[in-house]
Design goal:
35% of the residues lie in helices and 18% in strands. With 247 residues, it is an alpha/beta fold. The chain has a 7-stranded mixed beta sheet with strand order 3-2-1-4-5-7-6, with helices on both faces. The longest helix is centred in the middle third of the chain and has 17 residues.
Length: 247
Amino acid sequence: MSSEIMEDVVQLPQKKFFRQRAHANPFSDHDLEYPASPGDMDWSPLYPAYFPPPAEGSQRQVEVVDIGCGYGGLLMELAPEFPDKLMLGMEIRVQVTQYVHEKILALRKQHKETGGYNNIAVLRGNAMKFLPNFFEKGQLSKMFFCFPDPHFKSRKHKARIITSTLSAEYAYVLRPGGIIYTITDVRDLHDWMVKHLDAHPSFQRLTKEEEGEDVCVRIMSEATEEGKKVGRNGGEKFVACYRRLED
């Protein structure tokens, strides 16, 4: 292989160089940057192919968010499935966020002829504290919560990503008809998330038939690192999806 060809080969980052502990404390001071309001957010560094928008088109908005996106497997599977939607992964861990960012950049270079993967990005952020700082009311069409930290101890349950208070915030940023997707291999956490989402008047659980017809449920079950690990170990995956109702 000539040196010119080798220079054109784009290498994906290696996950082993970006390893970090499985979870982070969402209540710690992580020195995060966030806009004062959604209108103050500059999305151009994350989606340079879309911002500023073409003169003849309207400004695009992020529509799909993967909360606690981990190593980005879900985002990268969703990207070609929904090429017309801007999707964002939010991850609190520094090294993991950097890995996802570098992998997205590498995938964009690999697919520069088709413009693939320009519609996904990752942001280091704490969704439990700052979600309304990034998204307008009714902006999102899909939200994913894949294998979140179970916080097994009772005194830590307040740190779970689905609570009564947070459900209200998710209802605020999710548009009517939008879907919340949850998956875990921990039965207790699944029951907890179902209890809190069932209790919120803005959400209605999808039927098993509806979940079976939703391509996102299949991708969510198979694409994430945790999902693959559970599959390899023969574990059970518990899914619950909820539609945002009209106010």
